[in-house]
Specification:
Elements (H helix, E strand, L loop, with lengths): L13 H4 L13 E3 L2 E4 L3 H13 L5 E4 L15 E2 L15 H24 L7 E3 L2 E5 L2 H17 L4 E4 H8 L6 E5 L3 E3 L1 H12 L4 E4 L6 E5 L2 E5 L4 E4 L1 E4 L16 E10 L4 H7 L5 E5 L6 E7 L2 E12 L7 H18 L8 E11 L6 E6 L2 E5 L5 H16 L5 H6 L13 H17 L4
Parallel strand pairs: 1-13, 2-3, 2-14, 3-10, 6-16, 14-21
Antiparallel strand pairs: 4-9, 5-9, 6-8, 7-8, 11-12, 12-13, 15-18, 15-19, 16-17, 17-18, 20-21
Helix pairs in contact: 2-6, 2-9, 3-9
The structure holds flavin-adenine dinucleotide.
């Protein structure tokens, strides 16, 4: 089948830009064969390749990605590896208790696998560290979301701590937050640093990663899967598609995947004067109490002390956005930033970017065997750092004939349900998102 669309990533990949240039990996320039083929080198693809190398020492694994490592969504996110229920389409992140327990087990297994990579490949805390995160509320409505979420966590017997306005101020320096809910299990990433270190760790003379190698055709050829790029091809008996929403570009799950963009901005490094005016702790991580609100993070590492914010979600069935859209988002980011940090009115954003998410209407993954020897580890529902990691690992296990309770958990969800036909799907999803953002009010 011809691949219908290739990834387009709007704006700079800021986390990558903070790091020294990485040695580039060659594009595929030959017709070769492998024991395993992985398409996509984000969280899912690299975790799949890592697991394959663990299970089949000596086998040749080839990973192909369309872009530079960590320039795609894997390096464009806010870096929260969240263990707890975090359903972005729900009012307070929670879903049914049994589903939440199962997904929490999976998220935690993804986090454990990533922390194991930290030890195995000697990654610094800056790349990946367990620090927990706070759900921050700036309005009564946000407090109500935190209250509802706290009740759900009680029900799940999960620990958390509530923070009052004073504690939130001491943490963030922002006078805007009136309430917080701290949960300890979240792991924070410098996503580009983690992805680069993971790739470096798994590469060997048996595991080969090719950047700038978009797969333009995938076909079954004499019981082998053949992926063709613009300058070469790879054949392998088994292949894993780890391309998140681009699974649909390969002809699978048509009209079952929702392609959504979300957006982030990162400030220039804060000066010592600005830091003094800001106050608060040097590193913290805050998701909004209202899922449609604003994520904020402070870092103090390579690239200096900076604040990063993320908000807005737009439904983009074309999987592309225009420059005008990015311009419109910059204005929202500016407003959200000034509302929270009025003392930093002289701070400029150094980077603004967007990136793709893949959601399903019923918040389930697109996981499993698609065809004989072809597997999917896709549709991470906006939480691909943890979910992509475990989906990739488990897809490698499924393809290797392994069994186990986590694979059962991963396969217990129903299929992603169909979207209404366009233009109803576009109109409906866009209206729901705009309505949610409008209702979020100052939480945005
Ligand atoms: C601004 C922003 C903030 C976010 N914040 C968070 C967060 O805090 N926590 C969280 O968990 N998630 C977050 N996300 C979502 C997260 O980034 C994704 O869910 C995650 O990257 C998905 O991982 P993945 O490996 O499944 O897919 P991806 O990271 O998208 O990797 C798939 C790879 O496949 C490649 N590909 C696609 N088509 C082809 C082809 N034809 N040939 C070759 N390669 C191809 C792409 O180039 C890409 O590199 C955020 C996203 C954005 C944009």
């Amino acid at each position: 089948m011809d691949v219908r669309r290739l990834p387009k990533d709007p704006g700079p990949a800021a986390w990558n830009a903070l790091l020294p240039p990485a040695p580039s990996r060659p594009a595929l320039r030959e017709n070769s064969s492998a024991d395993w083929l992985v398409i996509g080198a984000g969280f899912a693809g690299l975790s799949a390749a890592r697991r394959l190398a663990e299970l089949h020492r000596g086998d040749r694994v080839v990973v192909l990605d369309a872009v530079t490592l960590a320039d795609g969504p894997a390096g464009r996110n806010s870096g929260f590896m969240i263990d707890l229920p975090h359903d972005l389409t729900s009012s307070d992140y929670s879903s049914r208790a049994d589903k939440d327990q199962r997904h929490t087990r999976l998220n935690r297994a993804g986090i454990d696998y990533a922390l194991d990579a930290k030890t195995a490949y000697d990654m610094p805390d800056e790349a990946i560290v367990r620090s927990g995160k706070v759900n921050g509320a700036v309005t009564d409505r946000g407090v109500a979301h935190n209250n509802a979420y706290a009740l759900h966590l009680d029900h799940l017997a999960e620990p958390y701590e509530r923070l009052d306005a004073k504690a939130m101020h001491a943490l963030t320096g922002s006078p805007a937050y009136v309430d917080g809910l701290f949960s300890p299990g979240t792991v924070m990433l410098q996503p580009a640093m983690y992805i680069r270190a993971l790739a470096r760790g798994i590469e060997s003379n048996r595991v080969c990663i090719h950047e700038h190698s978009p797969v333009v055709q995938l076909e079954r050829d004499n019981r082998l899967w053949k992926a063709t790029t613009r300058s070469g091809s790879v054949v392998a008996p088994k292949a894993i598609l780890a391309v998140n929403g681009h699974l649909e570009s390969f002809g699978f799950y048509k009209r079952q995947l929702m392609h959504v963009f979300t957006y982030a901005s990162m400030t220039a490094p804060l000066s010592s004067r600005q830091l003094k005016r800001l106050g608060g702790e040097p590193r913290w991580a805050l998701t909004p109490a209202d899922p449609m609100g604003t994520t904020v993070r402070r870092i103090a590492d390579t690239g200096g002390d900076r604040l990063i914010i993320r908000n807005r979600a737009t439904f983009q069935p074309s999987m592309e956005i225009s420059d005008a859209r990015l311009g419109e988002v910059i204005r929202t980011h500016d407003r959200s930033f000034r509302d929270r940090f009025p003392m930093l009115d002289d701070v400029e954003m150094a980077f603004t970017w967007g990136g793709r998410l893949c959601l399903s209407r019923n918040t389930v993954p697109a996981f499993g065997e698609l065809d004989d020897g072809l597997y999917a580890a896709c549709c991470q529902n906006g939480l691909g750092t943890a979910k992509g990691t475990i989906a990739g690992k488990l897809a490698a296990e499924l393809a290797s004939g392994e069994q186990g309770p986590l694979l059962d958990d991963m396969q217990a969800d129903e299929e992603p349900i169909k979207l209404p036909p366009p233009p109803f799907s576009t109109m409906g999803a866009s209206a729901i998102m705009r309505w949610g953002e409008w209702r979020a009010g100052k939480e945005l």
